């Protein structure tokens, strides 16, 4: 059976529909020849039909790696059998399940028409029809099916509505109609190129020919490798003949054609009745993008996040769960349970207050990280599902020009507050090498991930509010300074902002809850064993005398320069394994012995150094994979030096001014 590739724009519900089709038996794999990843699964059990969830894309002419992966699936550019354990299916043997957004159908159809040029069997699924209905948008699916020449179905993927119809219609997908009439010169180029390949005994789709005319690297490489450099030179000669006398870049010309045709189709198949709810949502969306109203809205959202994550989660929930339940009830119970173990070494490794993996591994993960992380994911999911994040990108576009990025750079940086490792992967949405290097530097330099961010709120919540302002002001300053300097000294260009602004909508509460629970579960599933491992490593390192030796070696830096107690070394060791693990250790040490180990100033310095110091091992691996070993080592040397410098400056300036944050 042919494989099914789920394609479409970003934020149209592809991944949700993929989960409904395949269940939980899925995995992420690397796409051959790239650093991009795809998610694969099987419909109807482990031996059922192969389904691939591809990254979202906005056009077949995009240059970033993730979007090329979605497109190349149907062009026989790569052999999918190179992917381990995916099944013996080549890229030319896929049908397309195109997912469209019911409330923004023009954007989706413009892309669907482009995919139609590939001569690939396709099923169009119009998703999120419930949100379209709430906005007064109705669609004639029968007429749309007749125009496109393929089956059209509709769904509410979050609730599983329409999934059964999708499965039944996937058994006999049809090849869509060719709806675009190209200008005469383009049609002539297509005719001559098809004739050239026919003489070679090969047929080629109009989609590939259009990519060749747009000088697409993947298409050109495919032709040169398969048919030889001479054939590619002949095609380039035809392209140069086309370009004579043309002023408008071909990619822009052709994209305008697709959008014009999509607009014509939408005007025939959709009707919209304006309602007060729509008008208010559209008006608020415009306010979010205007400077005079957008900045106050952004500040209000930040303040709400502080109240929800920093006050409610990091103070109330953590004190209730960690302090009352884990420390007050479970810890004494665990002490009684392990007291029957005759070996004191084993007992200490399990229950020692400073290094035992139960109090410093399991309890910290579930009592400290879990409540804060869950609340953060709830808040972030609301921003994501409401359509606010693209508007924030638009609002900050001019500001980001100063640091060498466009507004699209907001997305990886915001994702960094969720998980820096995952944010490193989203850097692929940026188009130029310079933008990717700058975004990587900024993420490494001071963007605290959600677990680290939450634990910082727990620690800062015990201090005066001035400590919080000083800490985040320093982080913001060093990120801005690093971006400005990187923009000045790195060679390269910044790409213009091309961003689709999706309609504002009310987030679905159940979907937000499910997404937050799943992300929290996935994090704890991965992080808890690492917390336990780090505690055991540190326990063994301490009992062997290595910790004392390392503290003596690093004393000139930790004690003299940074003004920190020698115990900070164990915080930094855990932070290298996992940053939030180091932050949890810092909180644990700050509360040990009645809080006598750290002063408030030392806590602030330690958090600053830890937020910039060597990133966790997962992030280091991703940086090496994405940017290369030389760039990764250079960046690590820069941030380690800056971490020590910034911590030292904060320590000595505060002591000089007599600031203690008490």
Give a quick summary of the entry:
By secondary structure, the protein is an alpha/beta fold. Helix content is 64%, strand content 7%.
Query: Strands across the major sheet, in which order?
Result: 2-3-4-1-5-6-8
**Poorly predicted sequence stretches spanning 5 or more consecutive residues:** 78-92
Total individual domains: 3
The strand count comes to 9
Mind summarizing the main beta sheet?
A: 7 strands, mixed
What structural class is derived from the secondary structure elements?
A: alpha/beta
Please state the overall shape, judged from the principal axes of the Cα atoms: elongated
| CA-based gyration radius | 28 Å
| Percentage of residues in DSSP E strands | 5-15%
Helix % is: 55-70%
Q: Cα distance, first to last residue?
A: 69 Å
Average pLDDT for all residues:
80
Number of helices: 30
Verbal overview:
- It is a single chain.
- By secondary structure, the chain is an alpha/beta fold.
- Helix content is 64%, strand content 7%.
- It folds into 3 domains: 3-169, P-loop containing nucleotide triphosphate hydrolases (Rossmann fold, 3-Layer(aba) Sandwich); 184-271, Helix Hairpins (Orthogonal Bundle); 291-657, no CATH class.
- The chain has 30 helices and 9 strands.
- The strands form 2 sheets. It has a 7-stranded mixed beta sheet, with helices on both faces. The protein has a two-stranded antiparallel sheet with strand order 7-9.
- A hairpin with a 6-residue loop joins strand 2 (26-30) and strand 3 (37-43).
- The longest helix is centred in the middle third of the chain and has 48 residues, at 291-338.
């Amino acid at each position: 059976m042919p494989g099914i590739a789920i394609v479409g724009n970003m934020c149209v519900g592809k991944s949700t529909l993929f989960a409904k089709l395949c269940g939980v038996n899925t995995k992420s794999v690397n796409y051959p020849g790239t650093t991009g990843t795809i998610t694969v699964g099987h419909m109807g059990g482990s031996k059922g039909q192969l389904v691939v969830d591809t990254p979202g894309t906005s056009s077949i002419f995009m240059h970033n790696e993730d979007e090329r992966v979605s497109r190349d699936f149907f062009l026989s550019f790569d052999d999918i059998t190179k992917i381990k354990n995916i099944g013996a299916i080549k890229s030319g043997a896929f049908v397309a399940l195109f997912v469209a957004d019911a409330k923004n159908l023009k954007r989706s159809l413009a892309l669907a028409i482009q995919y139609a040029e590939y001569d690939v069997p396709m099923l169009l699924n119009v998703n999120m029809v419930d949100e379209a209905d709430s906005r007064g948008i109705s669609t004639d699916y029968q007429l749309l099916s007749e125009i496109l020449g393929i089956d059209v179905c509709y769904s509410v993927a979050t609730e599983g509505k329409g999934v059964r119809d999708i499965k039944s219609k996937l058994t006999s997908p049809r090849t869509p109609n060719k709806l675009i009439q190209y200008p005469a010169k383009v049609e002539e180029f297509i005719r001559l190129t098809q004739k050239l390949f026919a003489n070679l005994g090969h047929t080629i789709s109009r989609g590939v020919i259009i990519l060749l005319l747009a000088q697409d690297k993947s298409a050109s490489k495919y032709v040169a490798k398969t048919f030889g450099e001479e054939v590619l030179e002949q095609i380039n000669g035809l392209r140069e003949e086309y370009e004579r006398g043309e002023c408008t870049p071909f990619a822009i010309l052709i994209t305008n054609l697709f959008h014009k045709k999509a607009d014509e189709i939408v005007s025939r198949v959709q009707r919209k009745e304006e309602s007060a709810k729509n008008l208010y949502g559209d008006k608020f969306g415009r306010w979010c993008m205007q400077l005079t109203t957008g900045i106050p809205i952004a500040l209000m959202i930040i303040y709400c996040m502080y109240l929800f994550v920093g006050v409610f989660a990091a103070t109330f929930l953590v004190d209730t769960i960690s302090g009352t339940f884990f420390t007050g009830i479970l810890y004494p119970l665990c002490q009684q349970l392990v007291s029957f173990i005759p070996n004191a070494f084993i007992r200490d490794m399990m229950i020692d207050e400073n290094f035992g993996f139960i109090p410093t591994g399991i309890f910290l993960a579930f009592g400290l990280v879990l409540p804060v992380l869950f609340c953060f994911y709830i808040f972030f999911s609301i921003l994501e599902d409401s359509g606010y994040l693209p508007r924030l990108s638009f609002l900050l576009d001019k500001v980001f020009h100063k640091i060498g990025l466009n507004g699209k750079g907001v997305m990886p940086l915001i994702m960094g507050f969720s998980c820096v490792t995952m944010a490193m992967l989203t850097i692929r949405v940026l188009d130029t090498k310079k933008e990717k290097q700058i975004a990587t530097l900024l993420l490494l330099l001071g963007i605290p991930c959600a677990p680290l961010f939450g634990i910082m709120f727990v620690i800062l919540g015990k201090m005066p509010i001035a400590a919080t302002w000083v800490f985040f002001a320093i982080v913001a300053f060093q990120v801005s300074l690093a971006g400005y300097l990187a923009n000045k000294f790195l060679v390269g260009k910044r790409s213009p902002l091309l961003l689709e602004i999706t309609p504002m909508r009310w987030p679905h509460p159940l979907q937000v809850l499910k997404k937050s629970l799943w992300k929290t579960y996935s994090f704890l599933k991965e992080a808890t064993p690492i917390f336990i491992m780090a505690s055991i490593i540190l326990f063994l390192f301490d009992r062997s005398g290595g910790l004392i030796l390392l503290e003596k070696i690093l004393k000139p830096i930790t004690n003299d320069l940074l003004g920190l107690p020698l115990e900070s070394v164990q915080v930094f060791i855990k932070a290298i394994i996992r940053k939030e693990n180091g932050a949890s250790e810092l909180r644990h040490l700050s509360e040990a012995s009645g809080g006598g180990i750290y002063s408030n100033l030392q806590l602030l310095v330690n958090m600053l150094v830890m937020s910039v110091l060597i990133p966790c091992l997962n992030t280091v691996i991703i940086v090496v994979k994405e940017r290369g070993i030389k760039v990764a080592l250079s960046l690590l040397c820069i941030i380690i030096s800056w971490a020590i410098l910034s911590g030292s400056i904060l320590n000595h300036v505060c002591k000089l001014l007599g600031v203690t944050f008490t």
